[in-house]
Design a protein that fits this description.
By secondary structure, this protein is α+β, with helices and mostly antiparallel strands. Helices cover 18% and strands 43% of the residues. Bound molecules: copper (II) ion. The site of copper (II) ion has 5 residues, from β8.
Length: 182
């Protein structure tokens, strides 16, 4: 009986140790959010590549993303995009599952793809982060779409974004608002 207890205690210790090392480690580098003040139509708008602007204002392209057209179309000031580099330093696969922010009602995970020479954005359920990988969320690729902004995003403002990862849990990042990638 004593042996049994020792065995159970050992097993419990093993489980605890296993849990302790199992959680993944993901770091977030260089997050930034695109400014909506000073966007197309404004005098100070520089010649951003077309696909950049599509991600900011092109939500009419989505069609089926569950937004009513009066939110998605029009001024283009109700959406923006967030970018960052995710580094999975663990030896376990992870995935970005969701994100939230104070400045927008919803955050969608998006991927820009080219199909028949037409650049389109589509919503994805998750962004895979293979073990040991570095995954860039950048214009023309994966990005976070901030939908239904609560106010214009001005250059220099800081935006808090909370990421939910499958393995690493929640990570909160503070991203500066910029007109373009620096
Ligand atoms: Cu998008």
């Amino acid at each position: 009986m004593k042996h049994m207890c020792q065995l159970i205690a050992l097993m419990l210790m093993f489980l605890l140790v296993a849990c302790g090392t199992a959680s993944g480690t993901v770091t977030v580098n260089d997050p930034w959010v695109r400014a909506t003040a000073g966007q197309p139509g404004a005098a100070n708008q520089t010649a951003a590549p077309m696909h950049d602007r599509m991600e900011d204002t092109g939500h009419s392209l989505h069609g089926d993303h569950g937004m009513s057209s009066d939110q998605a179309d029009g001024s283009g000031l109700t959406i923006s995009a967030a970018y960052m580099t995710l580094v999975n330093e663990s030896n376990r696969a992870d995935a970005l599952l969701a994100a939230t922010t104070d400045v927008a009602e919803t955050v969608e995970l998006h991927q820009t793809v080219v199909e028949n020479d037409i650049m389109q954005m589509r919503q994805v359920d998750s962004i895979p982060l293979p073990a040991g990988s570095t995954v860039e969320l950048k214009p023309g690729d994966y990005h976070l779409m901030l939908v239904n902004l609560k106010h214009d995003l001005k250059e220099g403002e800081m935006v808090t974004i909370t990421l939910t990862l499958q393995d690493a849990g929640t990570i909160t990042v503070t991203a500066p608002v910029q007109l373009s990638q620096t």
